[in-house]
Amino acid sequence: MAIETMVTPGGVRAVMEGLAATYRGRGSVELGEPYRVLVSTVISQRTREEQTTAVSQRVFARYPDMASLAAADEKELLVLLAGSEYREAKGPRLIAMATILLEKYGGRVPDDIDALLALPGIGRKTANCVLIYAFNREAICVDTHMHKIANRLGWVTTKTPEQTEKALEVVMPRDLWAGSNRLFLQHGRAICLSGAPPLCSRCPVRPWCAYGQEPTARKR
């Protein structure tokens, strides 16, 4: 298969269908309450999924809404954030974020990308995840896994996740945007590894992958 044919709507859709069949149910979008989605997404930054779930449960048990989080004692919050990476930075940011949302939006989480990006500790990945999982908006949530895999597939040639997001908006059909992050996350952890050669011999989408078709690429 010529590499050029892989970066087409049909080729992109074939990859996404292959990943969805492999990681069943992981590409679905389940909407959550905006406050919980926002806080848990901040907690998830640089933190594994199982740790994020445990930490989020503790935080929500103590701070069930925006007002209680805005009034949180920082030291107490840091204790509850144990297990989330960079908690010393996340704690003050969560309190500041809740305070801003309480004062400026009446405790409501805005469904606007610019308003979300104006909050402390919120980058494009987090903002897009909130738009997807809290408001069912069309967005692409690009993390390190998605950035890496999109480049290996040959869909994009980019240096940063932000560049990847913009490039994927061009090559990926809009109906695939929202569920793409969770599929790429699972694939990056299971097959398309970062700290070791990717397991290309076991990859369900290798026929559509530029890296997988490259004979000199470092892989297993």
UniProtKB/TrEMBL annotation:
<dbReference type="GO" id="GO:0003677">
    <property type="term" value="F:DNA binding"/>
</dbReference>
<dbReference type="InterPro" id="IPR003265">
    <property type="entry name" value="HhH-GPD_domain"/>
</dbReference>
<dbReference type="InterPro" id="IPR004036">
    <property type="entry name" value="Endonuclease-III-like_CS2"/>
</dbReference>
<dbReference type="Pfam" id="PF00730">
    <property type="entry name" value="HhH-GPD"/>
</dbReference>
<keyword id="KW-0255">Endonuclease</keyword>
<keyword id="KW-0234">DNA repair</keyword>
<protein>
    <submittedName>
        <fullName>Endonuclease III</fullName>
    </submittedName>
</protein>
<keyword id="KW-0378">Hydrolase</keyword>
<dbReference type="InterPro" id="IPR000445">
    <property type="entry name" value="HhH_motif"/>
</dbReference>
<dbReference type="GO" id="GO:0006285">
    <property type="term" value="P:base-excision repair, AP site formation"/>
</dbReference>
<dbReference type="GO" id="GO:0006289">
    <property type="term" value="P:nucleotide-excision repair"/>
</dbReference>
<feature type="domain" description="HhH-GPD">
    <location>
        <begin position="43"/>
        <end position="190"/>
    </location>
</feature>
<keyword id="KW-0326">Glycosidase</keyword>
<dbReference type="Pfam" id="PF00633">
    <property type="entry name" value="HHH"/>
</dbReference>
<keyword id="KW-0540">Nuclease</keyword>
<dbReference type="InterPro" id="IPR023170">
    <property type="entry name" value="HhH_base_excis_C"/>
</dbReference>
<keyword id="KW-0227">DNA damage</keyword>
<keyword id="KW-0456">Lyase</keyword>
<dbReference type="GO" id="GO:0016829">
    <property type="term" value="F:lyase activity"/>
</dbReference>
<dbReference type="GO" id="GO:0000703">
    <property type="term" value="F:oxidized pyrimidine nucleobase lesion DNA N-glycosylase activity"/>
</dbReference>
<dbReference type="GO" id="GO:0003906">
    <property type="term" value="F:DNA-(apurinic or apyrimidinic site) endonuclease activity"/>
</dbReference>
<dbReference type="InterPro" id="IPR011257">
    <property type="entry name" value="DNA_glycosylase"/>
</dbReference>
<comment type="similarity">
    <text>Belongs to the Nth/MutY family.</text>
</comment>
